[in-house]
Design brief:
Blueprint (H helix, E strand, L loop, with lengths): L3 E7 L6 E10 L5 E8 L2 H17 L10 H12 L5 H19 L9 H14 L2 H20 L26 H13 L5 H10 L3 H5 L6 E2 L6 E4 L2 E4 L5 E4 L9 E4 L2 H21 L20 H13 L9 H14 L4 H8 L4 H7 L1 H20 L12
Helix pairs in contact: 2-3, 3-5, 6-7, 7-9, 7-11, 11-12, 12-13
Length: 392
Amino acid sequence: MARGSVRPRPSTDGKSQSYRAKWETRAPDGTRKHHSKTFRTKKEADAFLIDTQKEVNDGTYVDASKELLGSYLERWLEAMAPKWAESTLRNRGSVVRRRIVPELGAIPLAQLDAITVQTFYAGQIKRYAPSTVWVTHGVLDEALARAVKWRLIPRNPTDDAILPTIPRPTAVVWSTEECVTFLKYVHDEDHRFAALWQLALDTGMRIGEILGLDWRDLALDRDQPTVSVRRTLTKDRDGHLKLGDVPKTKASRRSIVIGEDTVAALRGYRARQAERRLLLGPEWNNLGLVFDRGDGGLLRDSVVAESLNTALDKHPALPRLSMHGMRHTMATLALAAGINPKVVQERLGHANIQMTLDRYAHVTVSMQADAAEVINGLLRGPSRPERGQSAS
């Protein structure tokens, strides 16, 4: 049972008094630590002491940290760095140092409360887009949730924050006919990235995953040819290209079955790459990459994006599409064709099926209509007439 007491504390002039609640806790090594807090009334002090002693006895008491938020956030980044990809560490560090610390960094971690956080977000909303405010919230929320787990603060002050609504723009995707038109053009032109775009539209892979592919990740001679996603092309803290061994989530590490047209495109591309390799000889960078910058070295995604824009300039009738738009196109066409959403989730590498369903809700609504029509036909039966018609 935790020990504690409430005692009156007269003012220096003797005209009034306050009440000091005292209690003790024990450190992991068994040593005692004494605490106190002063209140205006005995009722407040008694209520606080009862709650505090219960937390101490239950093992839920947290001795609030006196560390400043800015200092804690730097320690959090350092402690979590081994778990994150370098790009994740760089992005979260940027949010911490550019947006959070200048406004909140001088506040003691234990004194950061919900209204201070909400006021901070209100100021951010005036300066940044709603999506940017959500990113800032995501970083602060994750850091403070970890502080709770580390028993530095009793609760997370971001839990009940009110955030701006993010208008979800309708993603630009191609129809089946537009995909066929584009792929026929780039293959007929023997475009440098024709096989890459064929693979993107077939699998829905992220551009970083495609540019991180090694030829050992492709099994083109199997009865069911596959591409395995094991790593991704990213950037280090200095912005230099780097091959990361671990994609963003466990679900991102996956094998995707690919179609015969994609297999044919990749085989043709591999033959042309082998010719380049012979021409360059010792100047070739032997990294084993499927898609390289021309000498076997790492290829920047910006080069692929610029090349896609150039190709689309020659087909103004086609909607402008980004590399990520190809990912959305694959998912939209697959769902619209009735492919099981679980299969689509696995091809995309989403962490869970709910993410897929939420992101492509506009497609699943039309699928509901199709399902209703099918179910209606099943319930009607083969011989039941249409409403308003008589059976003959």
